[in-house]
Amino acid sequence: MFKRSLPPWLPSRRDDRSLRAIRLPLLALAIPALVGTATLLFGTHGARAEGGEADTAEQAERCAIRLAIALQGKSADSTLLASGDPQTEVDALIASPEFAERYARFINAEFNGGPADAREDPVYYLAKHVLSKNKPWSELFVGAYAVTATAPGVAPPAMEVKADANGLGYFRSAAWMKRYAGNEDQGYMLSGAFRILSNTTGLELDASVGNPGDDRSATGRKGSACKGCHFDAWYALDKFARLLPKKKGQGDTLAFLPPTDGPQKLLGTTLATDKDLVTSLVDSDAWRFSQCRSVFKFLYGRRENQCEANVFDACVESLSSKKTLASAVAAVAKDPSFCVK
Fold it and tell me: pLDDT by residue (tens digit) across 255-267?
């Protein structure tokens, strides 16, 4: 269902046939000349075969280098360089600790607004855990885990991942909640609500700075300039925030209280808790689309192009059926196009 329509500048099927009909007579006339030129330039069939083999070996070496750097962040080893088809080693590369480390760092940077202390980075630690254990990628968002900081005297500073029936991926970790508590006067985590939507669906919004003296309370946000993002759109931030814990206090006295506004009508249904909210988002096509967009950014350093629709759809299908991030990355990295671009 993620197939792109053909861009308008591509010829239709009928136009394409007519273009081929025009080209064929010209090509037929050119073939004898091309054959003669090829004979003069390359000599015997054996010489051409040697050149072809050299080109194939060089292409395989370039492919090995690209895969090693993209998936592990390091140079290809001698075994991968010697492989005639490096893409057959993609699964092994993805199963390595280097890949888990590299992707965990990447997705942590994608999901957060900037660097943080090593004891305040639950996304990185949980992502690395999920990747290392090859667990379903959804567990990063809805898994029953607690991600907590190691004791202050323990070196190096880090966070620990433990099973916790009350966990909700990294969204209930104290470090994440404090980071995105926001400054709303009634304690609603508007910043946290946006981060949940952004991390699961790729939602992008430009924050409105406002003017001095503007009413920034819930009443003010219902005004014409703000109500679209805060109350009317599918991503109505105020309504989403009403399912999250409410903050109380600031700094060292910051605490979180259970939400008190009751169920909210969102995403075409009635949601009662933050777990209902995140689970609905992760069960959506938007989540799979967003995660595969991240895969493309990880491998290519950019979003997918329209001409890569088939590869992108393969990524979405792998994530849907096999559940793991490894399968989604492999669907893109194993495609022949990855090594010829």
Answer: 999 999 999 999 9
